[in-house]
Amino acid sequence: MNRMLVGFAVLAIGAVSVGASIVKKQAFAESHRRSRQTILYYTLSRIDNPVIVLGDSIVEASTLPRELCGHAIVNAGLDGASTTSDLGDWLMDALDGKPAAAIVIALGINDALGAARDLPQFEANYNSLVATLSKAAAHVIMLEVPPLDASPRLAVETRTKATRLIDSYNSALPALAVRSGATFAALPPLPTPHTIDGVHLSGAGYQLWNEAVLKGASVSCGSK
Hints:
Radius of gyration: 20 Å
Strand content: 5-15%
Oligomer: single chain
Largest sheet: 6 strands, mixed
Structural class: alpha/beta
Strand order of the largest sheet: 2-3-1-4-5-6
Number of helices: 7
Order of helices and strands: HEHEEHEHHEHEH
Shape: globular
């Protein structure tokens, strides 16, 4: 009986530890979300008609050029973001009624890797996001989702499943852009490898990714 009680106690302690860890991670993510939004608000409050690049950790870690044809470029990346992260309202609150010349959306990795979100869900979420952002931007650009690399940090089964989803997203994005009045921006062929861990871009990967972002956002040139 004593051994059984000890076993139950160990299990209970383990459950509490796991629960506390999850709560701590969620609290950190929410804190980061709020601080990023605050910084965006401060940045956007002093800029007129920016080009905003909205997305996940690939965007947040990027070193984008400062401007494109006279429009300041603003990094609105949020680590861990997906199409279910309510980035539309998050960015609209930071804009506080100010218009943007263009908003480039760079999402999809976390939909495929973390949530394994199927194509109908992805399309519905993406379409809703574009509808929200179109209220603030003259142009909305949908960037192709970058492929994954083979990496010891990424299990083969995980990569294979996520790659199928990413391929389905990219096949659907051009038509989705047409239906929603947005612009699709394709990525050029990326070298192998083009990431540092199977997911996040290396310097060579970012160089080509930046080119695609700027080419897509160039639809805003001439808009002041």
